[in-house]
Task: structure prediction
Amino acid sequence: SQQGEEDPQALSIQEGENATMNCSYKTSINNLQWYRQNSGRGLVHLILIRSNEREKHSGRLRVTLDTSKKSSSLLITASRAADTASYFCATRPLGETSGSRLTFGEGTQLTVNP
Amino acid sequence: GAGVSQSPSNKVTEKGKDVELRCDPISGHTALYWYRQSLGQGLEFLIYFQGNSAPDKSGLPSDRFSAERTGGSVSTLTIQRTQQEDSAVYLCASSLVQGIGSPLHFGNGTRLTVT
Result:
């Protein structure tokens, strides 16, 4: 099964609203990363949060990490139509080397309506 | 600068034929990954290269799948005797291995359709 599981599977909001996506994982991790995928394109790295961090910000993105619950959330504030995409969390288990596999969840499809 | 380049972008093939998918990673990136993504699904790990060697090929679904990387750069994923269930988008990614947090840089994928 996937190491990371996103929730909800799909989210539809109006422009200007905030969008929150959640990710749960099973094993202890070094870090957790969030990626975005526009339709028909590859994934683009958004943000990384390390296991010793609890919150991280980048522009309109805010990521939290709760290692005790093995979960993370991605908040996009003041959403725009251009934020419409699929969002994936990805983890690399603790003890893995930096170049080893990154395991992705199933993704959340976000639709921002103008 | 140039990103990860994959070719072809689309490939339609008949069941039973062999196909080769190519990936040109970002120059200087030592790690290279192949993933498969079925329609509306997440990413399924196939294989990972460090330089020219593949420390983890555990995700290859069958012995019809193979991959190689030469010169620490270009990689080719080969699928022999294609089956309809092989239809998917095949994504390649590379990363500059510097510490635990190196992000992956993805190409736009090859959409494979087996008829």
Q: What stands out?
A: Chain A has a mean pLDDT of 90. The longest strand of chain A covers residues 29-37. The radius of gyration of chain A is 14 Å.
